[in-house]
């Protein structure tokens, strides 16, 4: 597929595969801090760089600790602008050059990439605006309810993807 894209566009394709080694087990997830910088690659409300066929990159932080299952489910929460069209986007911790340890007292020199999971949704807040009509007491009051994103996103943890490994391997003959 990558070769077909190269031929069609006449350009090299830059790909960072999301491999199994980017998925941390729970012990290594516990070594992360509660607030980690994260990136999400996707197509919020269908937007992308059409000329270069590239997704948009959003940034944020973890809103729940990556090692803790939010409400007992295999999900986590990020604090970033997550809009429709972003579902299915990978969420990664990406540190280039250095990062601090969990206790914030040592700087680790080097880079790391951690595949946290896949965005699947987010909470919304319904804001109720009232349109008031005066001087006509026999009219009904009109209320406008508008859903608003609150800049939080739910992601299914990357470890869940490993549950499909055997099933998918059987389908593709591995």
What is the annotated CATH architecture? Beta Barrel
Query: What ranges have pLDDT less than 50 throughout 5 or more consecutive residues?
Result: none
Strand percent estimate:
35-45%
Strand order of the largest sheet: 1-2-3-10-7-4
Structural class by secondary-structure content: alpha+beta
* Alpha-carbon distance between the two ends: 19 Å
CATH topology: Thrombin, subunit H
* CATH H-level superfamily title: Trypsin-like serine proteases
Name of the top-level CATH class? Mainly Beta
Write down the secondary-structure element order. Answer: HHEEEEEEEEEEHH
How many discrete domains? 1
What's the gyration radius in Å?
Answer: 21 Å
Residues in helix, %: 10-25%
What gross morphology would you assign?
globular
Enumerate how many helices there are, as a single number. Answer: 4
Number of separate strands = 10
Mean pLDDT: 85
The biggest sheet amounts to:
6 strands, antiparallel, barrel
Structural account:
The chain is of the alpha+beta class and 174 residues long. The protein has one domain: Thrombin, subunit H. 14% of the residues lie in helices and 35% in strands. The chain is built from 4 helices and 10 strands. The chain has helices at residues 2-9, 26-30, 158-161, 165-172, and strands at 37-42, 56-62, 75-79, 90-95, 98-100, 107-109, 112-121, 124-131, 142-149, 153-157. It has a 6-stranded antiparallel barrel. It has a two-stranded antiparallel ribbon with strand order 5-6. It is globular.
């Amino acid at each position: 597929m990558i070769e077909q894209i190269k031929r069609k566009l006449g350009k090299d394709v830059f790909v960072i595969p999301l491999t199994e080694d980017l998925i941390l087990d729970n012990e290594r997830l516990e070594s992360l801090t509660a607030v980690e910088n994260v990136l999400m690659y996707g197509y919020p409300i269908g937007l992308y760089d059409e000329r270069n066929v590239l997704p948009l990159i959003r940034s944020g932080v973890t809103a729940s600790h990556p090692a803790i299952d939010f409400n007992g489910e295999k999900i986590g929460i990020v604090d970033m602008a997550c809009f429709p069209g972003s579902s299915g986007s990978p969420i990664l911790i990406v540190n280039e050059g250095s990062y601090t340890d969990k206790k914030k007292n040592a700087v680790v020199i080097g880079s790391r990439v951690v595949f946290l999971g896949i965005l699947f949704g987010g909470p919304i807040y319904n804001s109720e605006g009232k349109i008031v009509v005066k001087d006509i007491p026999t009219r009904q009051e009109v209320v406008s309810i508008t859903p608003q994103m609150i800049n939080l996103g739910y992601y299914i943890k990357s470890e869940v993807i490993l549950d499909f490994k055997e099933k998918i391997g059987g389908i593709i003959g591995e």
